[in-house]
Design a protein that fits this description.
Number of domains: 3
Radius of gyration: 29 Å
Distance between the termini: 50 Å
Number of strands: 15
Structural class: alpha/beta
CATH architecture of the largest domain: 3-Layer(aba) Sandwich
Largest sheet: 6 strands, mixed
CATH class of the largest domain: Alpha Beta
């Protein structure tokens, strides 16, 4: 069902002017022309938009709903016309994003700094926290999620890439402590574990045939920060299980070597998610575009 834009403009003018006569005066139309336009609109929509008495004019429930969306649509059209007239697209307002702490620090923050520099009237608030936020209740426009997403009709998702965990160590450590040829060999090596909420986390691996394994490392060192685990591994203190995107550079230049190359974790998807809504602000769309354009390549390139 299509509704003429001019008719919507007249409807919005009547609501905001408070009467047909005032709207007609503002629009330089006759009162009859305004009344007929509203009547055609109501007939087309199949609902009454106004409650009419001899002295007052007020919106019905349907009229209130239609006004809210019509006002928003006209505002967006006006904004688009202004931007086109200026010859550029510029985002404004506050953009709030939630992302996992380390991933957000390395990948999301630089992209959002770049976006903010391109749009002087845009403010970006990036919350780096490993907890899963409620986008609507917590007031976020976007969130970055690593892992399988739960089924929900409240969020929309766009995949940006994949995340997996790799076993790695320095050449110096492996030369000193010997090779690792099987999973059982790990028991004879010094390992660096990840501790979360006071509990040492298991390593989840799979081989080339997708056979799954889980083991709890006999960790000599336990840390609750992946950067700290990486630094400990780089100091030749043992074998670590780290995100591939965190060690691209070290694997590329040889300062870290992948241990048991036939074993890695399963792939976990990385998504950007946002609230499901018929209306997407320009700032949100531009941020999503920035992620989609840049992150897939960055996730496979040394940084």
């Amino acid at each position: 069902m299509q509704t003429e834009l001019s008719t919507i403009s007249i409807f919005v003018a009547v609501v905001e002017a408070g009467s047909f006569s005032n709207a007609a005066e503002q629009l330089h139309l006759t009162r009859s022309a305004v009344s007929k336009s509203i009547a055609r609109l109501e007939d087309r929509l199949g609902v009454s938009l106004f409650k009419r008495t001899t002295r007052t004019l007020s919106l019905t429930a349907e009229g209130t709903l239609f006004y809210e969306h019509s006002r928003r649509a006209l505002t967006e059209i006006t904004t688009a016309e202004t931007l086109l007239d200026q010859g550029k697209i510029s985002a404004t307002g506050l953009l709030r994003i939630s992302a996992p702490a380390l991933f957000g620090q390395l990948y999301i923050a630089p992209l959002m700094v770049n976006l903010a520099q391109q749009h002087p009237d845009l403010q970006v608030e990036l919350s780096l926290n490993d907890r899963t936020v409620d986008l609507v209740d917590d007031g976020f426009d976007l969130a970055i999620r690593i892992g399988t997403l739960p089924d929900t009709t409240h969020l929309v998702a766009r995949k940006l890439g994949d995340h997996r965990m790799l076993l790695c160590a320095t050449p110096e450590y492996l030369k000193r402590s010997g090779p690792v040829n099987t999973l059982d060999d790990l028991q004879q090596h010094t390992t660096i574990g990840y501790s979360y909420s006071g509990h040492l986390q298991k390593w989840y691996l799979q081989d080339e045939n997708k056979q799954a394994y889980s083991l709890k490392p006999k960790a000599k060192f336990m840390l609750n920060d992946m950067q700290a685990i990486k630094k400990t591994a780089l100091s030749h203190h043992g074998i670590a299980w780290l995100p591939d995107w965190l060690i691209h550079t070290e694997l590329h230049d040889g300062t870290l070597l992948q241990v048991l190359e036939n074993y890695s974790s399963i792939y976990f998807p990385i998504h950007v998610v946002w609230p499901n809504s018929p209306y997407m602000p320009l700032k949100t769309r531009l941020a999503i575009d920035e992620f989609v354009d840049c992150l897939p390549q960055q996730l496979t390139t040394p940084i």
